[in-house]
Hints:
With 321 residues, this protein is of the alpha/beta class. Helices cover 33% and strands 25% of the residues.
Amino acid sequence: MQAWHVHENGEPSEVMRLEQAEPPTPGEGQVLLRVRAANINFPDALLCRGQYQVRPPLPFTPGVEICGETEDGRRVIANPALPHGGFAEYAVADSAALLPAPDALDDAEAAALHIGYQTGWFGLHRRAALQAGETLLVHAAAGGVGSAAVQLGKAAGATVIGVVGGSAKAAVAKDLGCDVVIDRRSEDVVAAVKEATGGRGADVIYDPVGGEAYTQSAKTVAFEGRIVVVGFAGGTIPSPALNHALVKNYSILGLHWGLYNTKNPKLVRRCHEELTDLAARGAIKPLVSERVPLGEAAAAVQRVADGLTTGRIAVVMEESA
Length: 321
């Protein structure tokens, strides 16, 4: 089979090599999957750089989210078990964690439903208890994680404010359903949020960026609001001023979706059932902006690493293209 291997840490375009390899052998409790499509996530870039919280032994194959096919022909979505990730013709995954791919979505869309949408569902509903009629602010609203939160927020009946960088991404966020779009490159985010909310601020803020975005979040969160800390794609981990949270009466909520797989797998399955229902009703649909062949995976991961993409890029195998 063909598989991308990382032999040393560095930038994805420099360290990912497409090589011939034997299909991986499943371990106890694992299953071999033929990869139909693999979604590219920012953690794939961090894995290449050696900066992710999980550091598989070298060499490894990145690709943490796939739509695959079991040997008995079932179409499933899964998180491959590293070091045998999804940027290959075959991957392995824990059999107990396989989820049925929604019929309403094609392979690339199904591959993109898992991490981003589960993160959004747990962040908005489990952690922040978003209610219909509340205002949700989403940073990086045109990105893979942000676009999922926008759709889930609209499905929940919230008014959604999307913050993006650039006019092209602003157009994408508008098409996704954002009620208000703020271009951080040309607008004062804090002033624009206060204007859009009549000075009240956002009830829930979904932040996968960190850094300056978190600073803006603390300035725009409403009384009894909730800031959901999802990640640090901006590269800077902020240090929240807890005295500010005290005097302004807001909550800072951490979200590590992966822990739910071990702490509460039944809830993960319930989340998937709800996402499948939303997809069937057309309320959510992963924004797959590009579909690339396996041979272009390294360049695509680099574009995600550099923040040059909107929505998701999916690596699609020829058999399912």
